[in-house]
Amino acid sequence: MLFNSIGYALFLPIVFLLYWHLAAKSLKAQNLLLLLAGYFFYGCWDTRFLLLLLFSTGLGYFTGLKIGLAARPSARKAWLLASVCINLGLLGFFKYYNFFVENFVALLRHAGYVGSARTLHIILPVGISFYTFHGLSYVFDIYRGKIKPTTSFINYAVFMGFFPLLIAGPIERAAHLLPQVEKPRRFDRGMTSDGLRQILWGLMKKMVIAEGCAIYVNTAFEPGWHHSGSTLLAGIVLFAFQIYGDFSGYSDIAIGTGKLLGFDLLRNFNFPFFSANMTEFWRRWHISLSGWFRDYLFTPLAIRLRNWGKGSVLFALFVTFTICGLWHGANWTCIIFGVLHGLALMVEFLTQKGRKKIARHIPHPVYKGLGILFTFSYTCLAFVFFRAENTAQALGYISHLFSRSLFSSPLPISYRLLLVIVLCVTLEWTEREYEYPIAGLALRWPRLARWGFYYALIATIFLIGPKPQSFIYFQF
């Protein structure tokens, strides 16, 4: 069931009405309804993996209780390791088994041994990377003493199976979401209106910008390199807007849906294309994932290796972003994508003093503008590996990009798509102090102008938006 489908347009109002009318007076009834809605929503993808979700939920609940009750530090650590190993083992089997087997056999062949790869026809459970990290945050936070284990399996199951987050995040922390599950919620008209606005903005980014860009991007990435370097350049720029519109659009719909149900979910994007360096970019792009890796991998690793001096930070950055790339997909293109970002952050860490000295001699708007331009350009080049099917295609794309035809005329781009992108970027820049661009309209614009703009967005979605497609991050 896609967020941008007729099915979801029927599902959400039904859940909303039942939630705030039939179940409004009972927290237990609300949570039970959310649990049933979450499992129905997930079952619409593949009912076979409901048992996997239930097992992962039971694992986190049981080990969380054991960690909380254990008196000895060694016992607490043992239960934590058991939970982490089983969770990562399941994720590794479903997502990475074939990748590691194929590459191990290829390595043996390179060394002179003859062998064949015994791969399995494994179906990747949708959302497993996201709800696995939800569960890991729970046991980590209990182990660190940030939260106490919940004694209600229903409440924990709602945290794990909350349908707006279940497929592609944001990756919530137990310390942030679970207390909201456990306390009574009251209908808030202002929060509901805000949620509807954010859903509308998310649908516009997904159905108009992302899907509109996808048509051109698919053409640019066609095998054979029939297109000019200028077309390939336009292709990677539009892919940046495609994946941003696709994933941030999903996040807006998820967060807006949470608001309809009385939940404050983690912000996942903060206008990342206005970042002046790669460090800032990762504080604004997929915030819930970068924050998860920072708190549960980078910081503990850097602290453990603090005797290495600067080397501890450099090594932790490299490891973190290599794993971050692998998290995105079981292929070398995603790993290279992560490594490229890790290397950029390592360079920025080593040159931060020099960059500060240079900044003193350049007007701030110029320095920031150049930083934004460089960061966006580097991000687009890294996205080539993210979009390509294999490393050969990515390297071929880049080599054909930097050819003489780079300065020729590209394939024409829909003027309506360009107009919408310009409108989106302009709104995001002028309204960047808000959570999402049109959040401030309710505070400043007259009602007639405000509703006229909403109807214009709806009309744009129906008139310009292509046929609904799946979200890119569903494959992770």
Helix content: over 70%
Estimate the global geometry from the Cα principal axes.
Answer: globular
Distance between the amino and carboxyl termini? 16 Å
Total strands: the figure is 0
Oligomeric description of these chains = single chain
Describe the 3D structure.
The protein is mainly alpha-helical and 476 residues long. The protein folds into two domains: 6-187, no CATH class; 191-475, no CATH class. The protein is built from 19 helices and no strands. It has helices at residues 6-22, 27-43, 50-69, 73-110, 128-143, 153-161, 174-182, 189-220, 229-260, 278-284, 287-304, 310-328, 332-350, 352-360, 364-387, 391-401, 415-430, 441-444, 447-464. Helix 1 (6-22) packs antiparallel against helix 2, helix 3 packs across helix 4 (73-110) and helix 15 (364-387) crosses helix 16 (391-401). The longest helix is centred in the first third of the chain and has 38 residues, at 73-110. The radius of gyration is 23 Å and the shape is globular. The mean pLDDT is 89.
Give descriptors for this structure.
476 residues, mainly alpha, 2 domains, 19 helices, 70% helix
